[in-house]
Amino acid sequence: MKYKIHIFQTHYRPACCRIESQLNYKLMALDTANEDKVSKAIESQTAKIPSVVFLGAALLSMGISAALKCSRWKDDKDALFIGQWAAPFLLLGIYNKIVKTEGHD
User: Fold this and answer.
1) What is the Cα–Cα distance from 103 to 85, expressed in whole angstroms?
2) Of 37, 49, 58, 62, which cross-links 89 as Cys (Cβ 3.0–4.6 Å)?
3) How far, CA to CA in Å, does 65 sit from each of 30, 81, 82?
4) What global pTM score does this model have?
5) Rounded CA separation 46/75 (Å)
6) φ and ψ at 47, to 5 degrees?
């Protein structure tokens, strides 16, 4: 008996595909448990840092960048490099705040 497989038919899956997806799910569950331990350890340590530290670091990088830009060096590559640190510091602060309020998965 041959099965006719239609392109738009989504409810039929051969047994081999079901077994393969179950194995992939089990392997993924094993990986995420290990990842979960690592991420919880990292998040528990970063949650101890106050969120104002990240805001202060962003403001400090903007201030240093402005000071380097105004000091009229030959080139302003250093000022631009340090000025780009502000956005990652603010993103880290947002992530830290989310971890503190929402908790771990």
Assistant:
1) 26
2) 58
3) 46, 8, 6
4) 0.60
5) 36
6) -70, -15
Q: Cα separation of 13 and 7, whole Å? A: 12
CA of 69: how far to CAs of 28, 76, 80, in Å?
Answer: 49, 6, 8
What distances in angstroms separate CA 67 from CA 11, 71, 79, 81, one per listed residue?
64, 6, 8, 13
Joined together, the tokens standing for residue 20 give 């393969």
DSSP letter at 49? S
Torsion of CA 75, 80, 82, 84, to 10 degrees: -170
Instruction: State the amino acid at position 4 in one-letter form.
Output: K
What is the dihedral angle through the alpha carbons of 58, 63, 64, 69, rounded to the nearest 10 degrees? 130
| Contacting residues for 79 by C-beta, under 8 A, at least 6 apart | 65, 66, 68, 69, 73
**What are the C-alpha distances in Å from 15 to residues 19, 38, 40, 78?**
6, 35, 37, 60
Is the confidence at residue 104, as pLDDT, over 70?
no
